[in-house]
Design goal:
alpha/beta, Rossmann fold, 9 helices, SDR_fam, KR_dom
Length: 253
């Protein structure tokens, strides 16, 4: 799909991988709507790319419905949707004092990462299926998993479970939405220089980067965004998960 002139929605677009994706899509000529909870950063990003910001909790169906409606009113119905919103606080299943992880804490991660992704995917697909095709397709939806889906570390039980579910969601979603000419893809990033890792001392960042076989460094969010653009451009990419990780395989801890 040619990105120029298309309407795009990016969740979690105020920072990190989402922000890089917003910039890349805008530079390619898309009209971009940012869905995020961080109003200050979201509005600043929207201003920088001449897009729009929509304060949204992706776990709330009504908020997502309203955001997609308002974005479509401004930019036209979205043919490109990229789900980057997510959280990943570390927590052991049983802590050092022997207490189990509260179910509410586990579900908080699953709700944002998995349910939030599905909420946006399903509502966006519902609107997208009514569009006339552009070339072969009506649109593309790209979700974000993680290498933790395959190599989850100690303390990542909730995060790995949520991202593993996104991996499992990819193929059935692509198969179902094929009738509507909508593609569904997932990117599973490795260690990227997102705000969480940027907050670490440089020595710690360098140590993490050396764990990557090649290139031996943390990934740049712009490299994630390049993968998004490549997926949009290639109509044969559908129903697959792409590891974007420099060949890293995470150790247990």
């Amino acid at each position: 799909m040619d990105i120029a002139g298309q309407s795009a929605v990016v969740t979690g677009g105020a920072s990190g991988l989402g922000a890089a994706t917003v910039r890349a899509l805008a530079q390619a000529g898309a009209r971009v709507a940012i869905l995020d909870r961080d109003a200050a950063k979201g509005e600043a990003m929207a201003s920088a790319v001449q897009g729009s910001f929509h304060a949204t909790d992706v776990t709330d169906p009504d908020q997502v419905k309203r955001a997609l409606h308002d974005a479509a009113a401004l930019h036209g119905a979205a043919r490109i949707v990229v789900n980057c919103a997510g959280i990943g606080p570390p927590a052991r299943i049983v802590n050092r004092d022997g207490a189990p992880l509260p179910l509410a804490d586990f579900m908080a991660v699953v709700n944002v990462n998995l349910a939030g992704t599905f909420n946006v995917l399903s509502q966006a697909a519902s609107a997208m299926q009514a569009l006339d095709p552009v070339g072969e397709e009506c649109g593309v939806i790209i979700n974000t998993a993680s290498v933790a889906a395959y190599d989850g570390q100690i303390g990542q039980a909730a995060y790995a479970a949520s991202k593993g579910a996104i991996v499992a969601l990819t193929l059935p979603a692509a198969r179902e939405l094929a009738r509507a000419r909508i593609r569904v893809m997932t990117i599973a990033p490795g260690l990227f220089l997102t705000p969480l890792l940027e907050s670490l001392p440089q020595e710690a960042q360098d140590s993490l980067g050396r764990q990557v076989p090649f290139p031996p460094r943390l990934g740049h969010p712009s490299e994630y965004a390049k993968m998004v653009l490549a997926i949009i451009d290639n109509p044969m990419l559908n129903g697959e998960v792409i590891r974007l990780d420099g060949a890293i395989r995470m150790a247990p801890k």
